[in-house]
Amino acid sequence: xKKIIYSILLSVNLLIGQAQSTKSPSEFWFxxxxxEKISFINGAYSTLSIMKKKHKEEVAKQYLNxxxxxxxxxxxxxxxxxxxxxxxxVGYDLQLITMHMDALYTNSDNINIPVLEAMKVVxxxxxxxxxxxxxxxxxxxxxx
Length: 144
Description:
Radius of gyration: 21 Å
Order of helices and strands: HHHHHHH
């Protein structure tokens, strides 16, 4: 019985300690070095690219023999949502993206916005979609 109580107390203590040490997304972002930030964004871009490619391959496998098949809107929408996370105009200048994310997180209203959502807002702004980016930023500020 004592072992159970001790293990429960230890678990609660660990959970409380972990909850207190949890960093906000902006604290996490600013704790990274410049090279780590670039690596993070590069990894996110690579992951999104691979995810989109694999999805296209699976869709092609599924509907390979159906000549009447037309790609539904939700698949097109899925791909456009993935594309919003990377800026086409900036291209592969990841240093520019990191600087803009640094600027985004300097505003105290943006401290709790998740890093990938911040990356999406920055990419939308870089592509000239300011209205959409500002709307998304306001939604994120309200949510977080």
